[in-house]
Write a structure and sequence with these properties.
Helix content is 40%, strand content 21%. By secondary structure, the protein is of the alpha/beta class. Helix 2 runs parallel beside helix 3 and helix 6 packs across helix 8.
Length: 225
């Protein structure tokens, strides 16, 4: 899943980007309001983590503009202003949640997972398909009660496929949600990663879960659906 972090404090932004990437998220960073608008309007994100106090254009004005353009990406607003009035102002501007600074990273992760579940087909902390399950909090993946060890990028791809099970996902869509803006479009990394994931999830089982839609992309579903 792909996150846009908008924060102009280098120490905090570096901490957030590093921590979120360690949790298997693809992360892009913007340090000003105009940069945030440019990325949010041109790229596809599953969540925006947005500081209120930004150079040139404030976080409040950023979220107001995005909402006026019809962008419904969940927004988690960060600010040093923790009063009730400030929280109300942020939520009224169009933010989905509000986290005062300083905050514990574990709380930010919990709010991130909660906001992503709101936009998902499932509101549960476990994604399931047949005998496959992915526990979002512990990041444990099971197939037929056997633990499947995945790399961070394989986990990110599996989470995106499971959140959209039954829907055909193009390679472009997968790239937009699993990789950041530094992705090299001249490589076949999507197909390679799908192949690695199939080896771990499907090769030992008669029931295949990942299916190729020729000329389009991939879909995760039970074959009898």
């Amino acid at each position: 899943m792909r996150i846009l972090v908008v924060e102009d404090n280098p120490k905090l932004s570096g901490f957030l980007v590093k921590g979120l990437r360690e949790e298997s998220y693809a992360v892009d960073l913007a340090e000003t309001g105009p940069d945030a608008l440019g990325l949010a309007e041109s790229e596809s994100y599953d969540l925006i983590i947005l500081d209120i106090l930004l150079p040139v254009i404030s976080g409040l004005d950023v979220v107001k503009r995005l909402r006026s353009e019809g962008l419904d990406t969940p927004v988690l607003m960060l600010t040093a202003r923790g009063s009730v009035a400030n929280r109300v102002e942020g939520l009224d501007a169009g933010a989905d949640d509000y986290l005062p600074k300083p905050f514990a990273f574990d709380e930010l992760l919990a709010r991130t997972r909660a906001l992503m579940r709101r936009g998902s087909a499932t509101a549960n902390s476990i994604l399931r398909l047949g005998d496959l399950s992915l526990e979002l909090t512990s990041r444990v993946v099971l197939r037929a009660e056997e633990v499947i060890e995945l790399t961070p990028k394989e986990y990110a791809l599996l989470e995106y496929l499971l959140r959209n099970q039954g829907h055909v996902l193009t390679r472009t869509s997968i790239i937009e949600h699993v990789w950041d803006i530094h992705y090299d479009t001249d490589t076949n990394v999507v197909d390679v990663l799908i192949r690695y994931l199939r080896r771990k999830l499907d090769d030992a089982h008669a029931q295949k879960l990942i299916h190729t839609v020729r000329g389009v992309g991939y879909v995760m579903k039970l074959v009898d659906e």
